Amino acid sequence: MVIAVLTYFLKPEYFDFIVKPSARQVYERELKKTPQDLEQWKSLKQLALKDSITTSESYSEFVQTRIESPFAAGYWVNVAQGESVFATIAIDTIKPSWILEAYDIQGKLIQTARVTDSSLALQIINDKHQRLQIVLQSFLEKRDSTQLKIYKQPLLDFPLPGKSNNAIKSFWGVARDGGRRSHEGNDIFADRGHPVVAAADGRISAVRDRGLGGKQIWLQDALTSSSHYYAHLDSQLVTTGQRVSRGDTIGLVGNTGNARTTASHLHFGIYKSGGAVDPKPYIWQIPIPENSTEMPFKSRGVGFGLSAFMHQQPSASSVSLRTIYEDTLQIIGNSNDWYHVRTADSLAGFAHKSVVRLIEINSSTH
């Protein structure tokens, strides 16, 4: 027993198959040999956790590291119930030297990325409203560039194959019956007879023809612990108790029930234990971002021009954080035409390339 304890403290890596340390813990174990490096590494993580930038639903960035500026940055993501979050970076699988993690709003680590082929990838599926922070940090000795992507995806398939977001013409919460009730679903329009598919694997819990929904199907989905409601169908092609797979055709679009005076469409709803929830995030199709273009890069820049403002997102319409006129900036990376920058007082954001002048690390800023 004593030998085992001593071995753990002297050679903890021998017990990794039991303890299963995170990539960060393994790297910090190596850095204990050089305390000043360990202190720098930990301070960079804290710097990233203080970042306040918020990504869009489909975000990409070209990131680089330099000798004088190891990479560390934090990216907030607002996640709706029904969405999952993906974060990936391209890596050299021979010796990965990046840390990619997800933290909750209290700063608790909830997931560390795993190596997948030539990438480091996170996939977070919690099926609830939340705000997450993705942290990307390079090893101190890393001198490289990579493509970072952070994007959201719906948990379910779109219930009408061949159709997309623009086929949804009526959304959650719209007033019905003169305001006496609200719309508890999405109306997705298509020609009569268009296939309706199972949005997830599950079991058909009911097949009915009655009331406002007319011909309807209920599907019990274990993935999201919910019931899917398909209404106004022209035909039902499944039976109660039947098991179906994601993408199986279960019915055909129609206008039965109280939709008999409207154009044919599918009313798609989702019900959880507390009642109906907005189905839009569960099916809303979000494009996977393309790689961000690489812009000219130096470790430092200076803001210039009266329109030199830092924004929360890489968009002129996003929240303006502050002016950066004549401020010296650390250049972290770029999201297409926007530099990801950090000010001397550690505020991170985005500045358009037109208001950033790149400078040599030892040159004057004026």
* CATH architecture group name of the largest domain: Sandwich
Poorly predicted parts: 2-11
Strand content of the residues, in percent? 35-45%
Q: What would the principal axes of the Cα set say about the shape?
A: elongated
Q: Could you tell me the number of beta strands? A: 28
> How many separate domains?
3
The largest sheet is: 10 strands, antiparallel
Share of residues in helices: 10-25%
Determine the CATH topology of the largest domain: Jelly Rolls
Mean pLDDT: 89
Q: What structural class do the secondary elements suggest?
A: mainly beta
Text of the CATH class of the largest domain: Mainly Beta
Calculate the terminal CA-CA distance, rounded to whole Å: 65 Å
Helix count from the secondary structure assignment: 5
Using the CA coordinates, give the radius of gyration.
Answer: 25 Å
Pfam families: Peptidase_M23 (PF01551)
GO molecular function: metalloendopeptidase activity
Domain M23ase beta-sheet core: 182-279
Protein name: Peptidase, M23/M37 family
